[in-house]
Amino acid sequence: MRAVTAKYACTAGIRATGHSRNRAIGLLLTLCALTALFATATPAVAVDTPTRAAYLADRLRENPVHVSDQLPREVPRSSAPAFARIAKKTGVPTYVLVLPLQTGADGRQLLGAVHDRLGRDGLYVLFEGPDIAEARAFGVDAPADAAVTVTQYELPYDAGPLVAFERFADVIAQGGEKAAARAESARDRYSDDEPGEMYIGPSDRRNQSFITGILLAGVPLSILLSAAYARRGRPRKPVLRRLVWGGAVLSAAAVALTATVVFDETRSSAAEPPTPADLSARVERVAAGLKQDPVYADPESPRVLDARQLDRLHERIRDFRRSDRGGPVYVSLVPQTPESESAGDAGLFAAAVHAKVGGPGVYVVADPADGTIGVYNHGLRLDGNRLTVDVPDSVTLGDSKADEAGDHLLGERLDALMTFLDNTPRTDRPWSEPAPPAAPNPTRETALPALFSTDFWPGLFVGAFAALLLSSLVAGATWLVRRLRRRRSPVPEPSGSLPLTAPTEPSVSYLRRTAFAELTALAEEFSDPDDRDRAWDHLDAALLLVDGDPGRVRQSGTGAETLVAVIVLARAGRAALAGDPADLCCGVNPLHGPATRRHHVRVSAEGNSRRLLPVCGLCGDTAVVEPGGIPGRLLKLPDPSLGNTRLPYYDVTDGPLTAIPQGIARLIDKVRETAGVH
Asked: In this structure, are strands 131-138 and 122-128 parallel, antiparallel, or unpaired?
């Protein structure tokens, strides 16, 4: 009206002057135009609606740290005091905004606008989610750009907002020169290689559990199997057995303790657990707004509806409410992100808002960030299936043209949605959306599984299998090495293992190696003059069999029965030197070593022929439990007169070897008688 009045006043002035000169007319018209321009501009300034920057400035006026209620799963509002504590380290007035990520938004421009409206100098910091997006200094000396650079390069992406802000504040406190140098150093150091992650994920925890299971089963079992292999054929000592089991138990405890210390992570994210108030804040804010106005535009997000579109939407909502079996329509222009209380589920958000608003209606959730629209009927008499299935994709998702537009054409698409609601068939009964599943628990969402769970159990199985395989490989390699060493430099076998390892039909090469090893070992141990009283007869008789030359046992002219006699005498001599003399040798197989008693044993698989023979412990047990097994355990040697035929050792020759069943002393006498020595 003021513009119209000014316009008519100018026209009247022109008429009152009559026909003035053209220059005067032009000047007067210019003045009238300027008057009209200012007159029409005045109402726009007067009705300036709150903008995003104005809203944020008001929040900072209340508190210099504003944490949005839209990120409770990642940056809960309850973390604001921690931000305020860190902000004091900068040494300058610091204002912090923590907002959802706004695609395409200019953070630097937003901070400038917020500063203009707040009217306070200081350091302004903008977080978009957990990351520092922008920082600007107004009227204070603070190296904002350098500090942002340091946090971007020195910290991994999962450091979290509080750690990032702590690093940012430390750099600010260093001053401009040091901050610039540190930023340059960080840029050079991490330009190619990013710093390592601070947190692990569930898959990493499963790998840790798997490794722990392998070690917890593999290490103790390897100790037990290795000890069992090492003790094979040797006398069992309870003390050693307890030591082995104790070592296995201690190794298992050490593995478990070390794993809990090394794999001590408990969370997969830097996000602090939100409080119940954090999770309900946004829903309560939106519900309170919808009770005042059926269209709620998130003040923290860029505006996507202009005044004309907003008026049009209000008008359509009023018309629908007054229509036949219509009702309220509530439109929430709020972003839906995975970090929100509903974890980005628009249906869950709509249900929560409906519960707070308390009345029936169609709840529309329009995301100003990605442009999606969700429609949810809670209690109106509308065909729910049509609303669920038949709303066009051009309305709910938009098209390529909407994707390219900054406002996603939400004004036009919401208008189309209202037309769709007008045409939706009515029903006799109210329709309500089914209850959506609850959002993931934010505390459990970031908690890692226990170390001794998930893949820990398969790890135990793999560890046991690996221990068996490794022990088998070690045993095989040890056996092969021993065989090679025995061939090159034979050494006597432990007496305890002889009943298990001594062959019943030994080859001549085996007897030569064993006889040489036993005879040379006896000669080497025969160093003390006092030994003559204990083992001289054994060594003397063995040397008589080889004409005084131990090397003859390796020559082809020495028979198998002579080699066995040398072995028995040398072993008996070494036992006497060790203080464990034994006059009896196993009569079933003299290669078994000392005998413990005499026993009537079966010596033929046919019939029931028996002989009284000295027996070792293993042969004595066999004679009692399985008498028919003794013939198979008899030492059999090749008979020179029968070619390759083998007979029991006492039937092959009438030489000294036949005296073994009567004892070592009788064997020594038999050797001397055969050699003509008295």
From this structure: antiparallel
Q: Which amino acid is at 342?
A: S
Would you say 607 and 621 are in contact if contact means Cβ atoms under 8 Å apart?
no
d(CA 255, CA 251): 6
* Per-block mean pLDDT, blocks of 10 residues, the chain (678 long): 33 36 40 37 34 94 97 96 97 96 80 95 96 96 96 93 96 95 93 87 95 96 86 65 91 96 93 94 97 96 93 97 94 95 96 95 95 95 90 94 92 96 94 90 92 95 94 84 65 81 90 89 74 77 87 83 92 87 91 91 84 92 90 88 81 85 91 77
Alpha helices by DSSP H, 79-201: 80-87, 107-118, 144-154, 161-174, 176-189
CB 664 within 8 A of CB 569: yes
Beta pairing, strands 94-99 & 122-128: parallel
Q: Cβ(66)–Cβ(60) under 8 Å? A: yes
**459: three-class secondary structure by DSSP:** helix
Beta strand 373-382 with 426-432 is antiparallel
In the structure encoding, which two tokens stand for residue 595, read together?
């005998």
According to the model, what pLDDT value does residue 15 have? 35
Element (H, E) at 432: strand 426-432
The 3-state DSSP class for residue 228 equals: helix
259: Cβ contacts below 8 Å, ≥ 6 apart: 208, 211, 212, 215, 216, 451
Exposure string of 348-367, with b = 16+ CB inside 10 Å and e = fewer, is bbbbbbbeebeebbbbbbbb
- What token pair was written down for 173? 């406190």
Q: For residue 71, what pLDDT is reported? A: 96
pLDDT at residue 559, as a whole number: 87
CB atoms inside a 10 Å sphere around CB 586: 28
What's the count of helices (H) and strands (E) in the chain, helices before strands?
26, 13
For residue 406, CA distances in Å to 252, 295, 369, 415 come to: 62, 20, 9, 17
CA dist., res. 115 & res. 673, Å (int):
121
Count of CB atoms within 10 A of residue 4's CB?
11
Q: Which residue has the tokens 């922008």?
A: 134
CA distances from 153 to 131, 276, 398, 526 (A): 12, 35, 38, 77
Expressed in angstroms, the distance from the first to the final Cα of the chain is: 153
> How do 373-382 and 65-67 pair as beta strands?
unpaired
Q: Identify any residues that bridge with 521 across adjacent strands, giving them in sequence order.
A: none
Pair of tokens at residue 141? 């000396």
DSSP letter at 585 equals: B
Token match 């439109």: residue?
331
Give the number of residues written for the chain.
678
SS3 90: helix
- What tokens were used for 164? 């990032």
